Structure formats: C-alpha cells, structure tokens
Amino acid sequence: KGFGNYFTHGLGHGVGLEIHENPFVNEGSTFTLEENMVITIEPGIYLQGKFGTRIEDTTLVEKEGCFNLTDITHDLIIL
C-alpha cells in the first residue's frame, strides 16, 4: 500500500517466439486473455537511492483459469 508512484514499468508481457512480445500488460491494457496464451506477471517497485525489487511469474492461460509455470518461492531471502 502506498507504493504506486514507485511502480514505474508495465506489469508483464506475452511470451512466445520472443521473450518480450505482445500483449504488454500495463495500466491501460485492453486486451482479452485467451486460452493457451503465455504471459508474465512481474510487479516491481524501485525506490530511488534505496533499492528496487521485482518478482516475475510465467503464467499459462487455461480454459479453467491461469496456471503458474514458475516454481519458485516468493519468500523474502535475506543474504
């Protein structure tokens, strides 16, 4: 909550013959998700002079809903 001004890029994009292709997912997107589309969902924030972070999932659109193809934790790992 309250980080909207730090979300400075799109939310995701299509994946197919190219890793970054249409449809591009952002605030003004008007496309309709269709069965068998593969898209990324990659929210991120960037606090200038402090840090930035992004989480990316690759998602398959199916008739019954969406299926996450990315098998990785979203837990915060402190190094």
Give an account of the 3D structure:
There is one protein chain. 0% of the residues lie in helices and 38% in strands. The chain has 79 residues and is an all-beta fold. Strands 3-6-7 form a 3-stranded antiparallel sheet, with no helix packed on it. It contains no helices and 7 strands. A hairpin with a 3-residue loop joins strand 4 and strand 5 (51-54).
What's this model, at a glance?
With 79 residues, the protein is mainly beta.
Q: What's the arrangement of strands in the largest beta sheet?
A: 3-6-7
The amount of helix comes to under 10%
Written as H for each helix and E for each strand, in order along the chain, the element string is: EEEEEEE
Biggest beta sheet summary: 3 strands, antiparallel
Separation of the first and last Cα atoms = 25 Å
Q: Which descriptor suits the 3D outline?
A: globular
Which features would summarize this protein structure in a list?
mainly beta, single chain, two-stranded antiparallel ribbon, 79 residues, 38% strand, globular, 3-stranded antiparallel β-sheet
